[in-house]
Amino acid sequence: MSLTFSVALALALLLVSVSPVIADVIVARNTRHLSFTASLTPDVVKPGGRLSLIVKIVPKRRMHVYAPGTKYRAVTVTLKRSAWLKPAKTVYPKPSIYVFKPLQEQVFVYSDPFELRINAVVGAIPPRTARVEVTGTLSYQACDDRVCYLPESEPLEWTLVVAR
Known about the structure:
The structure is a single chain. By secondary structure, the protein is mainly beta. It has one domain: Thiol:disulfide interchange protein DsbD, N-terminal domain (Immunoglobulin-like), CATH 2.60.40.1250. It has two helices and 13 strands. The strands form three sheets. Strands 1-2-4-10-7 form a five-stranded antiparallel β-sheet, covered by helices on one side. It has a four-stranded mixed β-sheet with strand order 3-13-11-6, with no helix packed on it. A hairpin with a 4-residue loop joins strand 8 and strand 9. The relative contact order is 0.23.
């Protein structure tokens, strides 16, 4: 893990622990295979507005996660369907090619820090609604040079203020 990301993760975790407003906007976790922060902006929404979900992922040393375009379980971010939220497709960076020598197999992976993005349009929100929930999941399968681990999912959840 890079020093820059370590500092950013520590700052995000500190902000989450001391600020109720930012706690609803940033999700930060450290798993056995990777670290990530997921931020949703802006923290105040209004009908017709736009949201951006950015997930910054740092695989741990010697780890990789699969990218779309392979037969293995690719890293994904999914948002729970909501009548008021219209998400676009996830934007993925260009992957690298990993050669698994025992099978002479080439697969698309992310082994360096990378970012996933989902842009969304805010639709009609029921009148007198003061806050809305956005929930989703970060799913991935991580591998190192010898072992592929079972797929994992991390819950994502934010509460946003509604402006009229």
